[in-house]
Amino acid sequence: MTEQPTRPAPDARPWPLGVEGIAYGGDYNPEQWPVATRVEDVELMQRAGVNLVSVGIFSWAMLEPREGELDWGWLDDVLDRLHAGGIRVALATATASPPPWLTRAHPEVLPELADGTVLWPGARQAYSVSSPVFREYAVRMTRRMAERYGSHPALALWHVDNELGCHVPHDFSDDAAAAFRRWLEHRYGTVEALDEAWGTAFWSQRYSTFDEVLPPRQVPGFANPTQQLDFARFSSDELLTHYRALRDVLREVTPHVPTTTNLMLSTGTKWMDYFSWADDLDVVANDHYVRAHDPEGHVELAFSADLSRGVADGRPWILMEHSTSAVNWQERNRAKGPGEMLRNSLAHVARGADAVMFFQWRQSRAGAEKFHSAMLPHAGTDTDVWRSTVRLGEVLRALAPVRGSEVRADVALCFDYPAWWAAELDSHPTQALRYTDEVMAWYRQLWLRGVTADVVRPGADLGAYRLVVVPVLYSVTDADAARIAAAARAGATVVVTYFSGIVDEHDHVRLGGYPGAFRELLGVRSEEIFPLLAAERVTLDDGTTADLWTEKTHLEGAVPVRTYADGVLAGLPAVTRNDVGQGSAWYVATRPDELGLARLVDELLGEAGVLPTVPAPPPGVEVVRRRRTAEAPDGAATGFLFVLNHTAEAVEVAATGTDLLTGAEARGSVHVPAHGVAVVQEA
Q1: Rounded CA gap, 541 and 552, in Å?
Q2: Which of 377, 436, 494, 607 has its CB 3.0 to 4.6 Å from that of 468, i.e. a possible disulfide?
Q3: What is each CA distance from 77 to 93, 363, 584, in whole angstroms?
């Protein structure tokens, strides 16, 4: 093998090799099509401005139709054609779905549900990442791909597996049980420490050896909550371990080529702790799909993009998949409306994506995803979808100067996967609480005001933020609680909501009163939780209402901001504020209605001195700024103002500079048509 270039330094910000400007393309599945179609594909990709495609994701059965019998010819030809057409490749390990011969020969690699149901072949991801047999085959296939194509001139990026954990976030098979026991022994060291962490004195669950421990399979009654929580941690770690096993082979054979896998960073993907995965990805990649039934789906999209940026630690990231129009897996798969594809794409770019990719390039004619939209639809090039594909390529070429710039925010929204898992365990004061509903309620209020937020883990460095929002951080470590408190002492306004700080990382209640870890910071103590019934509401002293949750709260240094005007807690505080060091800490001990939350957010932003990206953005208009980290030596502008009009009316937005999409000069304001976009390179 020829000597390969050395691996870039950690601060070199690896990126797909040879890709200039904003990357543009999508999943390409040439194995579904004849050679004549593949030839046409390259020509059409050039016409659309495509410069990066993902190849080989589900091609294992085509590359190895029978065990040990390899057919590389078709993929050699595809990569050569793409290279000749100037299109770079994110090449997959081909391991995302094992071929039928493997699962027939080794049915022990199949995953199981908690009730023992085996998940059989016939779809995808029919494998257990804990299976040593599957791991052996997957590593072998990855090595073959790396050795065959590691020096191919089209190769820009390694795409490891695909959407790990999408269909099988938890596997309860015997191989998974054995791996879980090893994970627990590494975490706790002794079975006595595990017994303490799991509280096994309750219900006579004490273990005398790790060999007695099982995953939380189907049980009578409620399973041990800490066992459930640790199994969620293990499952996320086990998927990451599988990624590392394949990634390490790629780094060994091709140390110069960056690696990634496509995460699913949204409010709909719960079971992978992606913050813990970030350091293992050379570049963060995300898949996101708008929910057709949600009239404010663009707000959840913005949250997903901000979360992607948070996992990427502020660095540019890849939008690996989204849709040109309808998807196939929702109950009603609505086609996208006028300008929606362009707005969705640029919303991700506005919030830090330097690549825009789709599932998929050409719409499939067979299989479960044949009605999932693509860049090139069933009806061909005389379609609005294809014209939108070409237009987006033109827009992204015009946005080449944006690449490498960053988003800066004055607000941090703390988001934590283990807290999500723990908050939604059974046997809680209410089963109606949904973690992401609470997170999105706060995020939405910021979005409506044109305020950009970084979505970060609680253990992040919070020192640069003026406002720190901590919704429903039910489970929190001492170290993370201390970081949040330190932000307030240093001058930030910190707001913590109900059901926060209640338990430690083992799901043990912090004694002495709620909100546990945050009592001193907030200057309050709640002695009892009073959850509300489904139709029950309480009135606050400002005339707004609240539902779901109330607490019997006492002031221990804090002052009341809102009190209950009726109900059994009438006169007691519902919202409080406490001076802390150079800053303040607010506690919201109930769930305010929309008006009440809006008023609170206005007060918090005012106290923290946080302003919107532009003054008074019109309702329904998204405005985000990307900046360069330092002034360019040629005097180039440092700011790029993205304006996305999600309304049916034209708007004027404050801006000065040049609209990169039209070339028009903005002298104090930029005109954005209904459903339209503008990107102003600021003077």
Answers
A1: 16
A2: 494
A3: 17, 21, 63
Look up 192 and say whether it is catalytic: no
Is the pLDDT score of 177 beyond 80?
A: yes
112, 163, 505, 622: which is the annotated catalytic residue?
163
On the 0-12 / 13-18 / 19+ scale of CB atoms within 10 A, 611 is middle
Cα separation, 159 vs 91, whole angstroms? 6
Q: Which CATH number fits domain 21-168+240-403: 3.30.750.24, 3.30.565.10, 3.20.20.80, 3.30.420.40?
A: 3.20.20.80
DSSP 109: G
When pLDDT is cut at 50, 70 and 90, the band that residue 5 belongs to is very low
CATH number of this structure's domain 411-608, picked from the four choices 3.40.50.1000, 3.40.50.880, 3.30.1360.70, 3.30.565.10: 3.40.50.880
Q: Is 163 a catalytic residue?
A: yes
Each residue of 359-395: pLDDT tens digit? 999 999 999 999 999 999 999 999 999 999 999 999 9
CATH 2.60.40.1180 assigned to domain 621-682? The reply is: yes
Burial of 113 (0-12, 13-18, 19+ CB in 10 A): middle
Of 512, 523, 425, 527, the closest CA to residue 474 belongs to 425
Every domain of the chain and the residues it spans = 21-168+240-403, 411-608, 621-682
Query: Which of 321, 438, 505, 622 is an active site residue?
Result: 321
